[in-house]
Amino acid sequence: MEVAHISRIILASASPRRQELLRMLGVDFKVLVSTFEEHREVDQPLSPAELVMATAQGKAEEVFRITSAQAETADDLVLGADTIVVLKGVCLGKPAGQEEARRMLQALSGRWHQVFTGIALRHRCKSVTAYERTKVHFRSLTDREIDAYISTGEPMDKAGAYGIQGIGAIFVDRIEGCFYNVMGLPVPRLALLLQEYGITLPEVKTLVRTGH
Amino acid sequence: MEVAHISRIILASASPRRQELLRMLGVDFKVLVSTFEEHREVDQPLSPAELVMATAQGKAEEVFRITSAQAETADDLVLGADTIVVLKGVCLGKPAGQEEARRMLQALSGRWHQVFTGIALRHRCKSVTAYERTKVHFRSLTDREIDAYISTGEPMDKAGAYGIQGIGAIFVDRIEGCFYNVMGLPVPRLALLLQEYGITLPEVKTLVRTGH
Predict the structure, then answer these.
(1) Which of A13, A185, B95, B151 has the smallest set of CB atoms within 10 Å of its CB?
(2) ipTM above 0.95, yes or no
(3) Which residue among the candidates A28, A82, A143, A173 is catalytic per the annotation?
(4) Domain ranges in chain B?
(5) Which CATH architecture has domain A9-210?
């Protein structure tokens, strides 16, 4: 396999959870947040998988254009990622208000939905893109639970009106698929993509001491 | 439902991940680590579910005996938890050396195994115990990947010779069941058990600001 020269790995995402997952892998990286605009229109012609891959590519490409312009960072490998929530084929955005949050949570209650994450790696020599899909199931929620959850404020800035990394966790009783995809970064898939660049995890220098 | 008076919630576990998950729920708690000995013998007569529940109860009971002896902490609610890895009906303990770690990882490679977590709540008025089971799949591993992983040192103090919260994450390409169970604390199940004590999550004071 041809091995590209990589000077640094750049994460084009402000997500604390993605940063935490990359650190967990022992990967050295730097964060450069993209300002690429995420498109979440329900009527757009792209499938959910196409949408997250396009957005991940857009984020990686934007940061790549900045770093590749300078000689000393021309060999940076830029990672972009994007995650969306899909219910019955409809991409759920952030609720416009409490009423919409209530409707979204009622729609998710007792049902399966899907979480898509696209990841894109951009380097001077090669670009690769992939996505992962995970099924997520909500237990049945009472109106009281939904109201209490809305009162916490957590749903208001979240796609699908819930945060799986927050209080919303108590609603998710089952998933099928990649564990880390739901957290915003499909780690096993990323590890395979990094092999395209001659980076095989785990590297011996890495040593993360956490339990099950 | 009868509501027990709860003065404090005590987590009888040193696990940083369990503490992180409880914080994520906005639960106020204090940590008092149990010295209860975990039993991991392959030949024991208990099923995996019985084993994790018994150990969770043992941990909770030990800490409860300490706190309940004093009037001001007699109303503490103590949470114990225990997590094990089971492959083909055999409970995998910590590998005794690199050779055993290699055998365990080879056995896990390309197969499904199960993760069991027992949780036990102990209070002066009421005790409840439950468990959750999640299926976990490893992608096929090469000998090179296994050797590199062993070289990181991570497998040596882990049941099943891997840490899902560490580099081991790159091996886990699929799970079926509760997401948080694999992290050591089945959060939706815990939320239901807390309702037995009149504690309904989310409480309005809780506000965790994290993204998907």
Answers:
(1) B151
(2) no
(3) A82
(4) 9-210
(5) Alpha-Beta Complex (3.90)
